[in-house]
Amino acid sequence: MSENQFPLKVLHVCSEIFPLLKTGGLADVTAALPPALEKDGCEVRMLVPGFPEFVKGIDSPDLVTELPAKFGARRIRLMYGKMPATGVPVYYIDAPDLYDRTGNPYNAFDGQPYHDNHLRFALLGWCAARLVEGFDYFWRPDIVHGHDWHAGLAFAYIKALEWNTGKRTVGTVFTVHNMAYQGNFPAHVFSELDLPFSMLNPDGIEFYGQVSYLKSGFYYADKVTTVSPTYAREIQHGEQSCGLGGVVRQRSSDLVGILNGVDTHAWNPKTDDRIEANFHERSMTGKKKCRLALQKEMELSEQKDNPVFCVVSRFAAQKGLHLVVEGLNAIVERGGQIVVMGNGEHWLEEAFTRFAQDFPGQVAVRIGYDEDRAHRIFAGSDVILIPSRYEPCGLVQMYGSLYGTLPLVHRVGGLADTVTDSSLENLVENRATGFCFEHFDYSSFDSAVQRAFALYERQKDWKKVQKRGMKLSFGWERSAKLYAALYRQIKVGA
């Protein structure tokens, strides 16, 4: 009997899924990975908090069960429906006291985290354990796969369930998308979490006098994955460990780096209906039309002789965008143009906006994020700048490559795994796909920018690098197979 005759039942626990709710790349991953897993013998369901976007976006949900008041929520209902477009089954936790808030799902209007985030995401983890326990009479997972700190406490609740029952019933996988976001709370909140007191220690979820939801995932999950092989190595030591290096090294034998993929149906210049004209590596005429359309849309001069750079990013310290701010004058002086879209730290928003005012026709800035415009920027630009201080995986460099927009990246994390520098040797061997700089400083960044200008002048070589990047395989197929193999490895009773 083949393993596909009895599909693995996998519950993904997360806080956002595109297109209903997206604040970053996590939503793209949780949208694309489950459908890919179904092709590898997995029956996937999702569990999310009942943020307004989910409540409104899931048509005709069914009531699974009503739960007693918990974690400050007077009414809790577990609802079941289907994700639009993909049809992936999803549970959402209807708890208005905790989740029915306008604006950002994590932060209040003043930009500060909600005071009860420890309870809001404790409920998410607790509900995951209840599904393991059998609260949906018709479906019980073989594997629970949690994403980032928001799901980290699920593994503590599952472990507590195992201690109470004396048996192990489910395999668990925790994926760390970014070590810098840890879900740390004051130790006194532990009394509100309904967990065994023995878990509040260094060999548990205590972290320098705090409760750490991220550490819970590291400590109690069967396997831990990160979103690129290089990042899996980086987080074991130094700055990238974010203080958790000892715990990570302790779990090194259970740590796996699996590169994120992208949704190649949504991000495909051959079929993308959001861009001016379609194109592919054998016919790039459409990209020229997209470039012209972008220049018109962003009120840039219609020049052809120099590259159009772009930034599509959160404005956060991690992203290294101060290097772009420092380098904007040089890009403009060399004849380049730049399109910037994103939001975040106020000083970066102000700096980019000021440059747009100072250099009309050369610099264009849009504060905020627009998915449709992102597609048009990738299609119409020549180089995408990603100078991240660290980058667990990154997705925009893959989008750039697929759209013939050469990534210029700091060689860290997933950027190192997905971009090959246009060095002389790599150009000769036809391996180059973009530009990489080694040292996180302006000199190294600017040197890479200069090399981008130089290669753009050699259009024959530029097109070779373009076409090489567009041929790369960034779909989820390979990564989904690796996850499915990992699930089978830890399935209880396998």
Account of the 3D structure:
- The longest helix is centred in the first third of the chain and has 17 residues, at 117-133.
- The mean pLDDT is 96.
- Helix 9 crosses helix 12 (371-380) and helix 10 crosses helix 16 (442-457).
- It is globular, with a radius of gyration of 23 Å.
- Helix content is 37%, strand content 19%.
- The two termini are 14 Å apart.
- The protein contains 18 helices and 18 strands.
- A nine-stranded mixed sheet has the order 3-4-5-2-1-6-7-11-12, with helices on both faces. Strands 15-14-13-16-17-18 form a six-stranded parallel sheet, with helices on both faces. It has a three-stranded antiparallel sheet with strand order 8-10-9.
- Helix 13 (396-402) links the parallel strand 16 (383-386) and strand 17.
- It has 494 residues and is α/β, with parallel strands linked by helices.
- It has helices at 25-38, 52-57, 96-99, 117-133, 153-165, 213-220, 229-234, 245-250, 285-297, 321-333, 346-358, 371-380, 396-402, 413-418, 424-428, 442-457, 459-470, 477-490; strands spanning 8-13, 42-49, 62-67, 76-82, 89-94, 143-147, 171-176, 184-186, 206-207, 210-212, 223-226, 255-257, 308-315, 337-344, 363-367, 383-386, 406-410, 435-437.
- It has two domains: 3-261 and 476-490, Rossmann fold (3-Layer(aba) Sandwich), CATH 3.40.50; 285-470, Glycogen Phosphorylase B (Rossmann fold, 3-Layer(aba) Sandwich).
- Residues 9-249 form the Starch synthase catalytic domain.
- It comes from Oxalobacter aliiformigenes.
- Its EC number is 2.4.1.21.
- Belongs to the glycosyltransferase 1 family. Bacterial/plant glycogen synthase subfamily.
- Synthesizes alpha-1,4-glucan chains using ADP-glucose.
